[in-house]
Amino acid sequence: MLILELAFTDNGTPERLAARPAHRQRLIRLHTEGRLVAAGPWADDSGAVLIFDVDRSELEEIMAADPYYGAPGVRVQGVRAWTPLVGPARGT
């Protein structure tokens, strides 16, 4: 699994807020397909965490197809491989 961490570098630029509804619809689809385990913003709306059950190349494709990741005010903080000990397991 991969964890994608985003930082929001603004208070909600019009471009980021305009891209958000389509982005959230994509997340729902990815979750339904089993490629996204969970996603959501930090409580203070300073960023978000997304947990994907995909390999790195597939994550790159997902990000390239979603304009939200390149919207003003959205910065990819990092991508890290994650091996959960408790909770969802890869492929289940």
UniProtKB/TrEMBL annotation:
This is YCII-related domain-containing protein. It comes from the Bacteria. Belongs to the YciI family. Pfam families: YCII. Transmembrane segments: none annotated. Gene3D superfamilies: Dimeric alpha+beta barrel. Residues 9-82 form the YCII-related domain.
